[in-house]
Design brief:
The chain is of the alpha/beta class and 335 residues long. Helix content is 44%, strand content 16%. The relative contact order is 0.10.
Amino acid sequence: MTELKVQEIASPDQLDTAILDAGLKALELETEGLRLLRQSLGDHFVSATKALINLTGRAIVCGIGKSGHVGNKIAATLASTGTPAYFVHATEAAHGDMGMISRSDVVILISNSGETAELLPVIKHAARLRIPLIGISSNPQSTLIRNSNIPLVLPSAPEACPVGIAPTTSTTMTLALGDALAMAAMEQRGFSRDDFRLLHPGGSIGLRLMKVSEIMHRGDRLPLVEPGTPMSEVIVTMTSKSFGVAGIADGGKLIGVITDGDLRRNLEKLTTAVARDVMSMNPRYIAGSTLAEDALKYMNTSKVTALFVVDDDTSAGPQPIGIVNVHDFLRLGLS
């Protein structure tokens, strides 16, 4: 076994500098690769995107080795942004998984050299089914590119590897190309944040895209009073509901709000006043369909800790259906 040796450096400072230089050089080479990739996009990229938009089945992404790892991520990105996709390992395809590829699919084959032997059965299967084959390779004369209906050739760029062998720049370009295809297809499909939310119900993304109506307090928890309610009762409502605010509703319409600040500004008349005498007009509120992420941003910008939620249809005025507190978002992990 070959013994690995750490390059001898005269001093710790020189070692730190050498490490940073190596890292910066790798990033510079990969950045240059992405710049070249950007310049290379053209008609074939458009055709590949159209094939993804128009497919009636799934995008089958296939590769092996590092290309397989990248392909797995590309398939996941496509699937999460509105293009049904599945990753099939090239070796497994030749041992039965070929049945996962149907006549309604589009196949995306990835190989930096374009000569990976394990891809040949998939190439032949796609030809037999007469389905679009999108090939991604750095070799324009390769078997893969020559047999692709839509060839996507990566521009010639040096690997970031110091000895020029480890797939680095090439995998970065492939991953970026996959992202570009997914985003172009997503935009042309009109895939919205609501669509995205349906495919990401869990994790931090799911929380960010959750609607306010899903986390709001409702029913008896609403601190609502009528305009003529004595302030002594308003204060009881504010205290018992624990939101530090009371909404004034007239005929089911939110017409005002009373906060702790309103109480302090009107101390001298609290014993005789009613809600309409103390409330602030034009209260802030949000629609129930507002995403949690946007609601929290609005609360932070408005510098409020509680906000009434109203029905999406405000043609008859804002109808309060719930209330949210900043702590509700914090409990969910949003901040």
